[in-house]
What does this fold into?
Amino acid sequence: MLQIKLPFSQPIFPLVDIGVNFFDKAFADDLDEVLEHAQLAGVTGLLLTGTDLDNSEQALKLANQHPNLLCSTAGVHPHSAADWTKSTAATLQDLLAEPACVAVGETGLDFNRNFSTPKQQQLAFEEQLTLAAETGKPLFLHERDAGVKMLEMLHTWRDSISGAVVHCFTGEKKTLFGYLDLDLYIGITGWVCDERRGTHLWPLLPSIPLNRLLIESDSPWLIPRNLKPRPKKYRNEPAYLPWVLQQIAQLYALPVQEIATLTSTNAQRLFNLPVALLERKLP
Ligand SMILES: [Zn+2]
It folds into this structure.
């Protein structure tokens, strides 16, 4: 039987990991085992992030193979916005027509690295906002150093879209409150466990209303730095989500079970997830 290390004496569930990138080469060899680890750790549902057309298709395919555990998103990440063509929206629309594909994204703006130009990013984002409005599906958003423009665009679109999460929020108070004013959900990752660069989030976190809080691993990146001992394979995986949960619960001064239940219910509500994704299954 597989063993899994936890920060608690028992697995806490349900836990819905709303951000997983399984099509990174980090998972090429042992995806089945990674899914088993996740379930042993109390993770009952996972949302596979689509960041371009290829991996949006792969994510949906895998989600359809594990309907009680996985759902997917379909979108084009701001880094890849330069690849957006006239036919991209139609391809995404076909993916979004499937029930297991529950959100538009990952989309948004990243002016930190500008792998695509800001103009290309805004165009691809605008097209994906249109898709969200047309399909009624919520958005899975990415933003880095682009809060002002992001808020401006979301403000214009807010009445047309059903909802959205700003995933892996690492920004400042003003941006956070801007998103909350638009009644968006906020995704928190292991960034909050990082004593070097995540401490600005500590006083901010409890101002996120508990009915707008979501939790995510962002695997294979952002391994929680409170995870002890460090695993031999130095990559993040959904089974380490309990360490993020523990840190969040400490910041809210609430029991871990309460945070687990609330964030999973929030994910179910925002993404209209099948209830099976909140039920414990053992591998
Ligand atoms: Zn992202």
Q: What stands out?
A: The mean pLDDT is 96.
